[in-house]
Each structure stands twice: as structure tokens, then as C-alpha cells.
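From the pipeline queue, job 12 of 40. The input is one protein chain; the requested action is below.

Action: predict structure.
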Amino acid sequence: MGNTAVVVGGGIGGLAAAIGLHRIGWEVKVLERAATLEDSGAGISLAANGLRALDELGVGRAVREAARGQYSGGTRTPRGGRLARMDGRALEKAVGTPIVGIPRSTLHRLLREALPAGALTVGARARAVERAGPRTVRVGHGATTLEADLVVAADGIGSEIRGRLFPDHPGPTYSGSTVLRAITEHAADLRTDFELTWGRGTEFGHIAFLDGRAEWHAVLSLPAGTRFDDPLTELRRRFRTWHEPIPALLDATRAESVLHHDVNELRTPLPSYAVGRIVLLGDAAHAMTPNLGQGACQALEDAVTLAAALGAESTVEAALARYDAVRRPRGQAVARAARQAGTMGHRLSHPLAVALRNAAMRMTPPGATMRMILRHHAWTPPSLPRSGS
């Protein structure tokens, strides 16, 4: 089997895939089309499955040291009533780790630091990905052409490579929700590590960070492309009567820090995650709504599974077939579950439906809630063979 790879995309999934391939002895180049690494995206939660993948990649300890465990919090109503309580200690006992919150910029930095020097090229948009021979794939960017034994398409939800591989696939679909988010300018007075509040067609949540700052997000059910002249002022208007610390988090935020993105997903499942010697990973393969907090975790699972398959199989084709057989059912199942969670969460707007949902949540035993969480979090990564072992 050959041992050179080009990873298209320098996000979480692409960087993790490159680390995994490097750890099994492959030579890897990562092409990131952004000219500067702004690391936007505010914050992120990582569950046990994502952290275990990071452990196998050798960066789990560094990530844990930079993150804050989510032990307290839960789900509330706009007036502050409790719908469900988070028991981070029980979750830690069940799976060995709590969910953690970390700024996305910090996670990106830690992943980049685990790459070999010179592996990442920024401002490099892959303009062509094509077969160069029976065992070679050619990738062009700018005036440069690279040949490799494998191309990993980690180029996000709008993946151009996926579009070339599956021209009849409808591509991303608007979920019906748009999200605004930011990190507070300074430490926030928070009593919980993580919290969601569900209104009618609306959600507000926060993640507390190790340094005392917090990431908040506001999800609104609006037509695609809706934008506000002054997003922060609009959010203050919409959430002015919601319980604390929601108004305080908005007041602790600079207007220029607010990011606004529509939430899109791959609602139509792909028929395969691999074609020839090109493999899809992360959002390029299974972009999902954020309702389960599993998008990044599934990309990390992809990365470790891909590296393990390549380390175990005698040919690239056999490894990619194994990767597809393992990852496609799970990735698509988690995407379906995330979509369903959204329909039972902030997407509900009819007063009767909201009241019934709230009553059901209050009556759900903690054990049943834990079993639902473990269905996604309790994942054990395959072991990566080390180069030279």
C-alpha cells in the first residue's frame, strides 16, 4: 500500500485525519483554502466519543487541560423553569469523562500543533481532484500539482469534491433554523457549565470556558438568508424577558464578535463515503444539525476509523471499503437523530406541543435520559498502529 495523502480542508476533521495518518506512518499534506486561519466558530462541546478519538490521536490530554468540564446545567424554559437537569458526575462515571467545552480556536491550535512541520498549506484551494493512474490521485492548487495515494475530502458541508463525486446528489438543505453566536468579551457570572433554554421556535444556550468566559448561541426559526442590521440589538430585544444569565451574556458581548450562519444539513444520505481513492470525512460526508452536539465528534470518529483501516488493510481500496462500512451507518444514524432532536426541541412552536413536550421532559426518569445520551457518547475507537511497530 502507498503512504502519501492529501487532505483537502483544514478544519477539525481534516486536521484530525492528517494527525491519524501521520501517526500510522503516512506522509500528509493538508490544503486549507482560507488564506488566514481566523478560527471562527466561537465554542464547541466535545463528548466522550470525541475525546476518546482525540486520545487515540495523541492530543486528548492537551484538549482536556484546555477545556472545562460540563458538570452542571440542563434545559430550562424562558422564565427559568427546569425541564431537565444535567448530571455531569453521573455521565463521567458512565463513560469515564464529562462533556467538555472549549473555544474552537483553541481546539484548532492544538490540532495544528500535533501536525508535522510544513504539513499545512493555507490559501490553497483544491481546483482539481482527478485520477492520475490506477493507484494515484492528482490534486491541483494554484500552479502546484500534487500526486498521492489517497485524497481525504474534509472540505465541509459545501464540499466541492463531494459535488464532483456525486453530481446528482441534491447537496446541503436548509434546516429551517439560523444561529447567531459569540464568545463574551470577559468572564461571565455563571452558575452552570452548560445550559439550553427552549422557547417557541427559539433556543438560547451557553457553554462556560476554563477562563470564565462563555460562548452563547441563539437559534431562531426564520427563512434562510435572514440577516439583521444590528444582530446584537435584535437579540437583546428578542431575549430581554428571558431568565438570567441570558441578558447578561448578551451585554458582555461586543457587537463585532457576533457570528451569524444558517444551519444546513445533508438531509439526503450519500450512497458511499468513498469513491476510488477519494474518501469523504466530517461535514463533507454527513453534515448534521447541532442538536446533539455531535458534528465535530463524528468527524473525529471518522478520522480515527480511517487511519485504523488504512493501518490494518493491505490496500487503500480495502481500507476505504472498511471505513465506509463502519462509518456510513453510524454517521447517518446520528444525523437522523440530530434532526429528530431539533423537531422536538427549539423547532416546536405551537403552545400545546410545547406544553406536552415540557411535561414529558419533566416526567422522564434520569436513567432514561442517560441511556439516550450513551447511545451516542459510548463509542470506543479502534487502536491505531504506530509507524514502525
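Job complete. The chain has 13 helices and 19 strands.
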